[in-house]
């Protein structure tokens, strides 16, 4: 760990105060040109408690984090809080995902949907600009358990998505089907492959092996770029599986999505996008001339308070406390699995993740509804219900659920 540590409360408060002092202060400074200000004072008034609530104080000060702060210049009016966003990216890119210092670009996006779209947009343009690819020669590969943000991005960017089947029980990529699909695509004139490999699917928590893709693509000498969707698993898997190699230590991986607004319990609007150097330039919008610095992100203006919220969570915990928190969730997940085993109820669980997805035939519909279990599909063909062991899902809640399930199994 180079960047990530636990900081005491006073130190965190001071760092944020200093960052805000380095920004333009709309309440005091003469700043005439920005189409922005602090939040409306009639509603977001300067309450006394704000001085003890640095994230809320930042929220009211309303810094704009428009743009990408790892490359070129940024809007200098908010340079104080931009620095703290860079600290967040350093922690995640270098300390958690093993990039080398200063060898990555990234930003805090509105969510995982945008981070995934940014990745696909970047690779699409990379193939067009650098390899003279035609649009119809580029295609996306991702498993059938992939999040719907991928077909959404495919639609926006006018690319086909080839959906790779997984086995029903263990949710692993069917490599034989994958090879057939790739060969058929080549036959149809596809030459450039954008791979999205999941590090924790939304429904199952299953983790794809990126090598399943690279082995097939390299066997046929095909051009590809590899993105990891860790929107859900990014704050779980690297901590529960210390030997994980799904990170930038693998030269084949070029970018990663990690949502702070899921496992990290940060406010919505904190998707994180990280990629290797020399890629993000492919989405430069040259026309954005009134903004200081280069425009390299899908979204424009975005809230600096979101970056500060993520910074606060990371530096309140530090790496060891975060590891402990994930370990507790893993123990609760194991508790649930043990109870299901006793009842001979079938389920899927990726051993390093905190999602348990149960065969729907074991769960009466009333129980699923009562406990808000999420079905795989909201129609009559649903085969799975999932339980996500988030922070608020405690053993006492699981026990009540299991007891109710027991009485339904034994009638
Ligand atoms: C939630 C999720 C997304 C999308 O994230 P949003 O933040 O809701 O846009 C993408 N991929 C996976 C695997 C997810 O779990």
TrEMBL record:
The keyword Transport does not apply. Its cofactor is pyridoxal 5'-phosphate. Keywords: Lyase, Pyridoxal phosphate. GO terms for molecular function: carbon-carbon lyase activity; pyridoxal phosphate binding. It comes from the Bacteria. One of its GO terms (biological process) is carboxylic acid metabolic process. Gene3D superfamilies: Aspartate Aminotransferase, domain 1 (3.90.1150.10), Type I PLP-dependent aspartate aminotransferase-like (Major domain) (3.40.640.10). InterPro entries: GrpII_AminoAcid_Decarb, PyrdxlP-dep_de-COase, PyrdxlP-dep_Trfase, PyrdxlP-dep_Trfase_major, PyrdxlP-dep_Trfase_small. The modification N6-(pyridoxal phosphate)lysine is found at residue 262. Belongs to the group II decarboxylase family. Sphingosine-1-phosphate lyase subfamily. This is Cytochrome D ubiquinol oxidase subunit I. It comes from Flavobacterium aquatile LMG 4008 = ATCC 11947.
């Amino acid at each position: 760990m180079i960047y990530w540590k636990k900081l005491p409360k006073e130190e965190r408060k001071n760092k944020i105060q200093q960052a805000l002092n380095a920004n333009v202060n709309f309440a005091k400074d003469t700043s005439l040109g920005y189409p922005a200000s602090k939040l409306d004072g009639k509603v977001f008034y300067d309450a006394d408690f704000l001085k003890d609530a640095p994230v809320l104080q930042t929220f009211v000060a309303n810094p704009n984090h428009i743009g990408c702060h790892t490359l070129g210049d940024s809007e200098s009016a908010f340079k104080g809080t931009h620095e703290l966003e860079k600290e967040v990216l350093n922690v995640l890119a270098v300390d958690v995902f093993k990039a080398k210092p200063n060898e990555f670009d990234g930003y805090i996006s509105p969510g995982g949907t945008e981070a995934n779209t940014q990745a696909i947009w970047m690779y699409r343009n990379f193939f067009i600009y650098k390899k003279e690819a035609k649009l119809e020669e580029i295609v996306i590969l991702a498993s059938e358990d992939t999040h719907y943000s991928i077909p959404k991005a495919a639609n926006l960017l006018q690319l086909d998505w080839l959906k790779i089947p997984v086995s029903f029980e263990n949710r692993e990529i069917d490599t034989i089907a994958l090879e057939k699909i790739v060969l058929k695509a080549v036959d149809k004139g596809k030459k450039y492959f954008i791979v999205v490999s999941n590090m924790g699917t939304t429904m199952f928590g299953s983790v794809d092996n990126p090598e399943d893709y690279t082995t097939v693509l390299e066997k046929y000498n095909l051009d590809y770029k590899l993105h990891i969707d860790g929107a859900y698993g990014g704050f779980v898997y690297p901590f529960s599986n210390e030997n994980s190699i799904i990170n930038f230590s693998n030269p084949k991986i070029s970018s990663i999505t990690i949502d702070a607004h899921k496992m990290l319990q940060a406010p919505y609007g904190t998707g994180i996008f990280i990629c290797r150097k020399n890629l993000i330039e492919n989405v430069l919008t040259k026309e954005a001339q009134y903004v200081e610095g280069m425009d390299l992100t899908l979204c424009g203006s975005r809230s600096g308070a979101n970056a500060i919220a993520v910074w606060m969570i990371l530096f309140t915990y530090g790496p060891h406390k975060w590891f402990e928190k994930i370990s507790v969730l893993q123990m609760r997940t194991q508790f649930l699995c043990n109870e299901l085993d006793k009842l001979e109820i079938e389920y899927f669980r990726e051993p390093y993740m905190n999602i348990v997805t149960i065969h729907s035939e074991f769960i009466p519909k009333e129980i699923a509804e009562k406990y808000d279990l999420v079905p795989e599909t909201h129609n009559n063909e649903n085969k799975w219900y999932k339980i996500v062991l988030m922070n608020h899902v405690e053993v006492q809640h699981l026990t009540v659920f299991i007891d109710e399930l027991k009485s339904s199994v034994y009638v």
